[in-house]
Amino acid sequence: MKLSIVALAFLAVACAAPQGDKKPIEIISSNSEMNADGSYSFAFESEDGTKVSESGSQKQVGPKPEDIGTVSKGSYSFTTPDGVVLTVNWVADENGFQATGDHLPTPPPMPEHVVKMLADLKAAGLL
Q1: Region Disordered: what ranges (predicted)?
Q2: pLDDT at 65
Q3: How many angstroms separate the Cα of 116 from the Cα of each of 109, 119, 121, 123, 127?
Q4: How far is CA 33 from CA 37, 56, 88, 124, in A?
Q5: CB count, 10 Å around CB of 79?
Q6: Residue 44 confidence (pLDDT)
Q7: Which residues in the chain land under pLDDT 50?
Q8: What Rg, from alpha-carbon coordinates, does the chain have?
Q9: Cβ neighbours of residue 52 closer than 8 Å, sequence gap 6 or more
Q10: In the beta sheet, which residues pair with residue 88?
Q11: Which residues make Cβ contacts (< 8 Å) with residue 36, sequence separation at least 6?
Q12: CA–CA separation, 52 vs 113, rounded Å?
């Protein structure tokens, strides 16, 4: 019984020990702003080259005055293990979240018949 308690104690100490020599990544710059009108912005950069920025504001997104939502835009970039810097720019608004970046896949072009159908629906006032 004592042996199993001692073994469990050693196991607990071993599991709680730091894994490797990873130290926390420092934030080298940071700023943020909150305004009375609901707009905001923030940005930070860490010592490993990661950068994040975001800004947003309140916008009426529906027909009623109380249909207010936050629209935001921002970007983030980081370095991959093989040294490539990847950047994502994004917008989040009444049309949803839209991200762009050179490394992100893009859909193939719409077939011509779909483009024509959408144009016809729009001309008929159905879209």
Answers
A1: 46-74
A2: 83
A3: 13, 5, 9, 10, 13
A4: 12, 10, 22, 46
A5: 12
A6: 97
A7: 1, 3-4
A8: 25
A9: 42, 43, 44, 45, 74, 75, 76
A10: 76
A11: none
A12: 41
